[in-house]
Amino acid sequence: MSNSYLKTIDNDYYRQRLSGPLIFILLAFAILGTRLFYLQIIEGESYYTKSENNCIRLQRIPPERGLIYDQNGELLVDNRPSFDIEIVPKDARPYENVLPDLSRYLNVPKAELIAKLKKARGSAAYRPVILKRDVSRDVLAQIEVNRYDLPGVQVQVIPRRHYVQRTAVHLVGYLGEISGTELRKKGLKEYRQGDYIGKYGVEKEFENYLRGKPGGRQVEVDVNGRVLKVNVTEKPSPGHNVYLTIDAELQKKAESLLEGQSGAIVAIDPNTGMILSFVSKPDYDPNIFVDGMSHDQWNKLVNDYQKPLHNKVLQGEYPPGSIYKIVTAIAGLEEKIVSLNEKIECIGHYRLGNRSYRCWKKYGHGWMNIEDAIGQSCDVYFYQLGLQLGVDRLAKYAKACGLGKKTGSGLELERPGLIPTSKWKLLQTGEVWQKGETLSIAIGQGYNLVTPIQALCLIAAVANGGIMYQPQVIKSIQTVTGKSLFEAQQKAKGRLPASPKTLQILKKGLWEVVNKTGGTAYWHARDKTIEISGKTGTAQVISLKNQEEKEPQDKSRYEDHAWFVAYAPSIDSRIAVAVLVEHGGHGSSAAAPIAKEIIKAYLGREK
Fold it and tell me: Does domain 248-294+309-606 have CATH number 2.60.120.10?
């Protein structure tokens, strides 16, 4: 056979072998082409519309914030439903077709809406921008009726904080919209622009417990952002409930007693350190921080000379006046500079050098021992005792009694007060300490500054026999199912620098303040059914000379601050109270009656 004949046979053989697969491949391409023709030509417009108009999105579901109760389970802070109007920028373009109607429905200037959209530039295109929070049901109805003419606009129903009882506002605190600075902080990654966060008080300090965990859902939406189908939902986890140590009934009573005045009231269980009442006046409505406030409202708050935003219990620093004599008495007895049997004469003034220092009682108290001096608050007695002690020894005992430093309440912005020393004055002014300044310090004037909560912790320690407990404002934290996450335990942080004998003498003097004729609170705090012990204090705002020179119309602003610290019953005490009335005048007449009523309200329920 020739070579050409052999090649012909081979070609026919391979052609026969390839024809089967070739036919299969051609058939497959024909089917595929037919299907593509059907999808792209015949059904193309329908599928194009679906692909353009529908997409899958993830929507965030905010959690319910934990509730806040008093120690007995009375609800103080709740949540309520709020309707927020949002817009998805990608769905709403061009804005010109949407914003005019939105501006009219929401009663918000168009320029303001544009500004909010510009502020959100840089965020994800499909992330909603909040245009107006907490709209009325009338506005909601208008939006719902016109939803098909408002592409990209949606209504978000979220839980909003509601302060059911406007009480203990400086303790509870308030929420505010999270700032850009806060968003950049570590530990706040779950927050987004527009979220609310605790800004002050318990709301801030226990944010991690109260916050809860957001959930989410996967939804299918059309070109206008309207939800067509919900595919997957992950429920949010609610925040934990916080139970405060305060007694709501006692709190309301204390607030009513200080209504119309400026000052602070704080009460404690002296045997545990649990705060029973926490009042700072004047106060404010915390709901305005959530609901929104006008510029006029904000300016009124920050410019009010009585400082309603100022937490006077923790941040108010005042001269302690005669309640400081408790410290002077402890120091004198412990240093054995004075004894119970030793008496000092008061003739109405004490002369040091060429200056005469007055006693509050013009013609003097006569001869008295330390118990009488405490009971009648004799300035001359404590002038002489303080002079023998010196400023630095007084400072040592004051600091050991918890003054001049934070109490450890755990709340932000607590102030330390000030207990001066000779070294402190030299560093601050470049001048040496003068003996006359020691006389002022010994009776709670001069550079001395204390906060109401420091004064409370001091008198509570005297009441319980010398144990200094850390004040606590949280009784427990629980899940929504009632599982306990935290239970308060009493925390002793030391003892007063006083022996049992010193405390016995001191407590007898404090009993005389209220229960013995001549005691400074005898006419204003004595009660026939409850034995109260305490100490009055009158703290000068300006010097006597300058006070006398003031015009009558300015006098109220320069009146002395009124103090009263007390505990009851005098034996086996169950409550201690500190009352500070700014510009109230005398502690005996302005502060003591308030403390008496609080004690009666609390102990009277035990019968």
Answer: no
